Amino acid sequence: MRSARRKRDKIVLDTSIFVNPEVRNDFGNSPTEAIREFLKLARQIPELEFYMPTSIFSELTNFVSLEKIPGELLSVLYQKSPNKHELTCPAIFLYELIEDIRERVNKGLRIAEKAVRSASKEDERQIIHNMRKNYREALRDGIIDSKEDVDLILLAKELNAILVTVDHGAITWAEKLGIRWLFPTKFKEYLLSFIEKK
Amino acid sequence: MRSARRKRDKIVLDTSIFVNPEVRNDFGNSPTEAIREFLKLARQIPELEFYMPTSIFSELTNFVSLEKIPGELLSVLYQKSPNKHELTCPAIFLYELIEDIRERVNKGLRIAEKAVRSASKEDERQIIHNMRKNYREALRDGIIDSKEDVDLILLAKELNAILVTVDHGAITWAEKLGIRWLFPTKFKEYLLSFIEKK
């Protein structure tokens, strides 16, 4: 297998793989179980290197009991932030982001106006509940909206790695930067394919 | 003056210089008059080259009567878009933008919630009017929120030019990219200083 090992592929992982039930259930019934199962598979695959941005790792610790995770995890899943002070992104990316946000901001205002107009007719609590949902969908879904998202994309870019996440925003922007990504629901099968070949 | 001409400084101009009354009045009582006066000064200053991104120029044509502007303008004020497919911006810029927007989006939602809560007590039209104002301030003031803003900043960066604009968002982000800028209210005096030296 030496020739294969020489071109080791890198994988950048998001927390969502271990937290989002749709994908996590492939690995285990809880985030902690899912990580243990991932670890069991990952250490059998020397052809792949696994990375997680530090900010994402820190999110993950909100969901798992760190004392139940073998220290070995750290030798299989590297913590690394992107080199954010040296990396650059294409300016066209900035244009697309600003235009996207501009449209979303306008949409957010329309949602708020509609809520105010219906406020005298319906239950105020229900209106606010619905407005929050619609507003968040309009302003956040399918966009990179946190530094954790930026970390994921830039780390994948820096390492020329494959991104594995459930987040649509991160995938949309990975596409714009020509970053490879996997369907998260196929991630376990992908890992197994390396093991079964042996 | 040959030695001075060899290092000609470049200036990138925003529409706001000719439209915003606070600055425009230094040059004339209408955008058209302001441009004619600017042109009169600019052609006496071979030490400076003036640029305007095409998108900004196109905004300007909403305010001025083009037929009243001498064709000479185009030989004094160059139209040029930034090279947006080759330029890059530092990744750290992306982090700051995303964090800034995230906070603004949350603030926008709080404003909308407050408006809904007061909707049963006050005049609906007045509430919507105030909400729009507060929302736009929260989501747009001091941020680059249009492709025209991005054009201004990137063109100044590309040309290593001095940015002249009234837009606080553009100035804030020019600062982050180490772009030189002038207090817009001092722009006429700045131009005159070149002429008076002679």
Write a structural description.
The structure is a homodimer of 198-residue chains. With 198 residues, the first copy, chain A, is of the alpha/beta class. In chain A, 57% of the residues lie in helices and 11% in strands. Chain A is built from 11 helices and 6 strands. Chain A has helices at 2-6, 16-19, 21-24, 31-42, 54-60, 73-76, 91-118, 124-140, 147-159, 168-176, 187-196; strands at residues 9-13, 48-52, 77-79, 88-90, 162-164, 180-181. In chain A, helix 7 runs antiparallel to helix 8. The longest helix of chain A is centred in the middle third of the chain and has 28 residues, at 91-118. Chain A is globular. Chain A binds chain B through residues 82, 84-95, 97-99, 101-102, 105, 108-109, 111-113, 115-117, 119-120, 124, 127-128, 131-132, 135-136, 139-140, 144-147, 149-150, 154, and chain B through 82, 84-95, 97-99, 101-102, 105, 108-109, 111-113, 115-117, 119-120, 124, 127-128, 131-132, 135-136, 139-140, 144-147, 149-150, 154.
List the main descriptive attributes of the protein structure presented here:
198 residues, five-stranded parallel β-sheet, globular
Summarize the structure.
2 copies of one chain form a homodimer. In chain A, 57% of the residues lie in helices and 11% in strands.
